[in-house]
Amino acid sequence: MTSMGPDGDPRPIEHVAIVGTGLIGTSIAMAAARAGCTVSGWDADPEVAARAAARGAMTAVATLDDAVRGADLVIVCTPIDVLAGSVETALAAAPAAIVIDVGSVKTAIVERVAALARPEDLGRFVPSHPMGGTERSGPEHASASVVDGIVWAITPNDATSPESVALVETWIERVGARPVRLEPDRHDRLVAFASHLPQVASTTLMGLAAAEEAGEPEILLLAAGGFRDLTRLAASNASLWSEILLANRDQVAAAIDLYVDRLRALRDEVTGERRADVVRIFEDAKQARLGLATKPTIRSGVAVLQVEIPDEPGALARITAVLGDGAVNIEDLQIVHSPEGGRGTVHVTVAGSVARDAERVLTDGGYDPIRLA
After folding, report:
1. Fold type of domain 188-273
2. Please, is 211 exposed, middle or buried when counting C-beta atoms within 10 Å of its C-beta (0-12, 13-18, 19+)?
3. 286-323 confidence digits (pLDDT tens)
4. Residue 8 pLDDT grade (very low, low, confident, very high; cuts 50, 70, 90)
5. Hey, where are the domains in the chain?
6. Comparing C-alpha atoms, which of 246, 341, 372, 354 is closest to residue 300?
């Protein structure tokens, strides 16, 4: 059970231990420190732990036991192939702490921890998955903003104590994320589409272009913003993603099969010159994407404004300042650099109800916005 305060209630989480101080572990450490927690951290590579500590987020210690001693919450952020063993070690080393993991696959981890850990410790294990990160790796790229506003999936099973789940959810909200409960197998099916398939598509497209470049050296010179956006994830950690895909292989395979079916259907519509059907496919996807960008509190939908800006220091700050001074809230923002250099394009997403105001504010600020949607 978790530690109790003097009034008999569960003790709030104040001391957090991070096991594995890569990008996500260090980012969580920074968010925890920002929220006022004391944070200790350990990594199997002392140099990585030292680099994480240099970010000012935590105190690096020499052993896992030292890191978790006195902790209220232990967050295991190790590679997925050793994650279950690390969770079992943390549960044994910190008998008063709640232990969570950040693995992007849950069913296999839950089953493996249940096989390794003592039954009496399983109530303190809360499987989880923060849906944040970047294609970069290493603590030097960490930031507390990685956690800001993200969905943090919580996937308890029958062995997990409700008290532990409640404490973890409260702490997740405290550091700026949004806890969402899912069953482990449902989580794995959903992330196969929302997280794993995008990585597969990005990697495959980049690999295809690289192979074609062998005979067409100009192909990557012609790569525009769309290609760069779609292949950004191809720069992700190869070893990490290999482990993730293999751990969720059945769900990933099913997602790939459905994706291939969609590609073939679109190919058939194009080769059959069925214009209306091609338009419908694009329009349906467009509306779904606009809905994805909409916050739950926005009922009027969103609008996307395209604005050209110079590719120079301060250009992005100026456009956001213009919108801020005009009391226009930015719901989403994307930068597309021109391959020719010297200029770029910003796609600004705003609530549909303020689209005209946003256009006016940008025009008054010297920009020439084009409404895309």
Report:
1. 6-phosphogluconate dehydrogenase C-terminal fold (1.10.3660)
2. exposed
3. 888 777 655 554 445 778 888 888 877 888 889 999 99
4. very low
5. 15-182, 188-273, 302-371
6. 354
